[in-house]
Design goal:
With about 375 residues, the chain is mainly α. Helices cover about 70% and strands about 0% of the residues. The radius of gyration is 23 Å and the shape is globular.
Length: about 375
């Protein structure tokens, strides 16, 4: 995108990339929900999902978080095809998508783990074990072949690769943490469990803004999702259990809490928890579908009126979330949470200084390797 729009428009280019990935995520989410429900339920659920202030914020940040969400949902989409269809092409593409999940944002790798668990469970319960065994062999073979270059690079740069994970892990705490000493692991774990149950099960806004990072992720004093979505989520989980639907997404929800949130500092962290967002709205979709199915059974003329009011209500909820988001990003609190940062006016100067520093220090940076020195000098 930077090559396409030019270095002077690099800010536009990187943000456009995030926007494109966000739109693709929304389309993929709609296709997944439509398979499980119907057209109207899928449209309403996707509207609520895409207007979430949590999702809106990450859909506009020049970061790979939403990219990871797209590849995670793509992996699930192809997993369903692999499990249901006979074509060999699906496990092949599933292997490639698994690699794209793995090499992307760490918080969304939970999709890969959940998919493998579902694959193995399906294999153990299937009467056609040889067919499923063949599929899983193709998937794993393609996955490791396409992942090999990344693993090779990672093995040569272990310190750089694992630095962020160490920094965010509760097992590498160096200073007092919520008044607990670093070696007081039992009490730290208790704190983590309590905070994540409050934040990701009961959506308590009092634990939603730990540390500076979370002040950048969702509006202050707001839970991750609004009250209407919370209620629909709880109902949807019950429906999912009763109808034996949504096992993959429940695993995403559960494993994110257990393996990512509880094991990392200052959680719930809404970047690392972003993989949970489609899972929440998946169950919201089951609730909305069930609600519309109940409304369809009303035989009186008032049915159209009730259905219209229900749709208007959901649209209003979506609009409220959008307004909350745009009001939030205009506040001084949002601005201060982004610090240290540069303003738009400072951007050209920062860009020039960055280029000079890279050139002076001979830093290998792929983007600059694609340009010759004459072209680069002309830019400034």
């Amino acid at each position: 995108m930077i090559l396409l729009f030019g270095i002077k428009n690099s800010l536009f280019a990187v943000r456009l990339t995030t926007v494109i990935m966000s739109i693709l995520t929304i389309i993929l989410f709609y296709l997944i929900i439509k398979k499980e429900t119907n057209f109207l339920s899928a449209v309403i659920t996707t509207l609520l999902f895409s207007s979430s202030y949590w999702f809106l914020n990450f859909s506009r940040i020049s970061w790979i978080t939403v990219d990871g969400l797209f590849f995670g949902l793509l992996f699930y989409f192809l997993l369903k095809k692999t499990l249901l269809e006979k074509k060999t092409i699906y496990p092949l593409f599933l292997g490639i998508s698994g690699t794209l999940v793995f090499i992307n944002y760490m918080g969304t790798r939970i999709y890969l783990l959940s998919g493998i668990i579902i694959f193995l469970l399906t294999l153990s319960q299937s009467n056609k074990k040889s067919n499923f065994f063949k599929k899983i062999i193709i998937f794993l073979l393609i996955f490791f072949i396409t992942l090999f270059p990344f693993l090779l690079t990672m093995s040569k740069n272990k310190d750089q690769y694992f630095t962020r994970m160490k920094y965010t892990s509760i097992f590498y705490i160096k200073n007092p943490y919520y008044n607990y000493q670093p070696n007081d692991l039992i009490n730290i774990l208790k704190h983590q469990i309590i905070y994540n149950i409050k934040g990701l099960v009961f959506f308590d806004n009092k634990v939603s803004h730990q540390e500076i990072e979370n002040l950048r992720h969702i509006p202050n004093n707001k839970p991750a999702i609004n009250l209407t979505v919370q209620i629909l989520f709880y109902i949807g989980v019950i429906i999912g259990f009763l109808k034996k639907k949504g096992g993959f997404f429940f695993l995403i929800y559960l494993l994110n809490i257990l393996l990512i949130q509880i094991m990392s500092v200052y959680t719930p962290n809404w970047a690392r928890a972003l993989s949970v967002l489609p899972a929440i709205y998946y169950f919201v979709g089951l609730s909305i579908f069930s609600l519309f199915e109940i409304l369809k059974k009303i035989k009186s003329n008032i049915k159209i009126f009730i259905l219209s009011i229900t749709i208007i209500f959901f649209i209003s909820i979506a609009i409220c979330d959008v307004l909350i988001y745009f009001n939030w990003i205009r506040t001084p609190e949002f601005f201060n949470a982004q610090q240290p940062a540069i303003s738009i006016d400072e951007y050209p100067f920062w860009q020039k200084k960055q280029y000079q520093w890279i050139k002076e220090n001979n830093i290998p940076f792929t983007f600059y390797d694609w340009y010759n020195y004459e072209f680069r000098n002309k830019i400034y």
